[in-house]
Amino acid sequence: MTGASARSWVVDDGIGEYAAAHTTPPDDVVRDLRAATLEVAGQWAMMQIGDDQARLMEIVARATGARRAVEIGTFTGYSALAVARGMGPDGHLLCCDVSEEWTAVARAHWEQAGVSDRIELRIGPALDTLRSLPAEPTFDLAFVDADKTGYLDYFHELVPRLRVGGLLLADNTLQRGQVVDPAVTDESVVAIRAFNDAVLADDRVVSVLLPIGDGLTFIQKVVA
Description:
single chain; alpha/beta; Rossmann fold; seven-stranded mixed β-sheet; 8 helices
């Protein structure tokens, strides 16, 4: 699945291929980024989002008129590139990650794409970064794609900082379909089950879990 244009673990392969073929394809910058990710990350390149998800995130950022966004877990920068492109030159995206090595790939390709001036990268634990920010609702859009055991903590820090109507997108919320198998007790799967249940029970938000990639949950803040 590494470098695939679509990465769905739950959609029929034929349907997935058809959907990918009818999605606007990536450009040269993205192709270069995917190749660079494979070179530096090897087997971990599978952590990169698919082209279909990237295009969806770009469309969401553009359609919602997002101008302030935050990302937890940047890896080599594909999702950030998509959001930054969608926001346009007036947008500001704060990226939180712990790896200098992988985000160096991101920086180079943000520069190549001409979006580096709208992206701020902070290296360090994301919770520390979030807790250092003002508690006011200033973000229009958030994306979480990091350690699964931290998702609930990220959610609780991000929701108060989202404006009413703002969106939080959470990746990998199906865990390759393992969330529905009670025999699976891997800590990441258990953590995502708890996250999914907590989101559903939180009356500050409404949500929908989409079977794109490894599960992408759209969470909208509806109550201040």
